[in-house]
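Record 1 of the preview.
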Amino acid sequence: MIISTILGAVSVAVVGVIAASVALLVGGFISYFIWDKALGTKSKKIVKEAESEAEVIRKDKILQAKEKFLQLKSEHEREINERSHKLIVDENKFKQKENSLSQKFEENQRKGKEIDVIRENLKVQMDLVEKRGEELDRMHKQQVEQLEAISGLSAEEAKEQLTESLKAEAKTDAMSEINEIMEEARMTANKEAKRIVVQTVQRVATESAVENSVTVFNIDNDEIKGRIIGREGRNIRALEAATGVEIIVDDTPEAIILSAFDPVRREIARLALHQLVTDGRIHPARIEEVVQKTQKQIEEEIIEIGKRTTIDLGVHGLHPEIIRLIGKMKYRSSYGQNLLQHSREVANLSAIMASELGLNPKLAKRAGLLHDIGKVPDDEPELPHAILGMKIAEKYKEKAEICNAIGAHHDEVEMTSLISPIIQVCDAISGARPGARREVVESYIKRLKDLEELALAHPGVMKTYAIQAGRELRVIVGSEKVSDEDAEKLSFEISQKIQNEMTYPGQIKITVIRETRAINYAK
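->
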């Protein structure tokens, strides 16, 4: 009973366990089927969405491909159209050129035929001309032979006689015409020119300055010479190196000679030496210091002289560099004439003469002051001083009339204004007046001798005399060899030869004297 009960309980338990297992198994299958169904539905949904997106992408790509195709097609068609149009245009141009060339070819053929016709006509005419020329030559020879037979002269002899006759007649007429013109010019212009020049010279006070290439430095006693020379000559060497001046210490009592062609350097050396002697300290270092200070003082003095000169003359608006060059003129001389004084003199003369002639006196004064500025440049180029002065004036923006007057006052450029001849004349007046310039005696005597020999070389001249310091040449000719007309001609020829072959200040008067003397004696 107990066993059957236990077996029954066990059976019930087993049955319960089996039932529970079956129930669990059935539930698991049911759950699997439900999960599998749900998973299939989701997968289908995802696949469906992917297919739709793929379809959209496919359509989009197809659409893009169609658009790209259409674009390429249109570009290709446009390019084909452009090439077709260009080919058509080129073809038209080619046809036009072909037509033009055809027309030109036809025209050239036509002209060629015309030229051939003209050439034939010319050939015929040339033949006729040659025949007529031969006939004329034959007739000319016959006439020349007849004339030679009648006159008894050959054609060359007759030609030479005619040429000589015409030449002599032309010379005589030319000299007569020249004399008449010169006489008329003297009558109309000589009086007025003399009045202007005399009045100009009277209204200007002048000074003459004689400059040398040496300067004498006076000292109190000869002991100072030894201090200036220094131990083994070091002081004098330092002084010469610093100033560029040769210092001559010789037996001359109480004097030292400073030698240099540059007056500015000589003045710097003189002032520096004076300061060193006064101070008493003379050694190379002190010499260099004093020379540098003196150079600065001279430079300042040059500028001050230039400013004072322009103020005195009333010339304003000059460039500072030109003012410095004007001041530098004080230390420059030409034939012993101080250049600054000469320039001031020419400026005043030019202003007075310009006012007398009704021109601008201020412009003339400015040009007169600057006319020799090319003689004092800082460098020494190989140019005439008139050309160099003109270039300096152009560089510092001076007026064209002034530049031309500076460049033309020695006839090195052509005169283009009325101021230029005034400057030239006043420069000659200032340089040629008595006492303005000094000349070496030997060169002066040589110039007078050359002047007399030049005139004595002409045929018919017996004696020559250079008088008035070479301003006048008197020529004595033989009356039996030189006629009155020949005397006029001789005077002109001598003046031209002197003008072309000699260099001289001012002008030279040539007087030809021809006289006939009849001498008898009363016994």
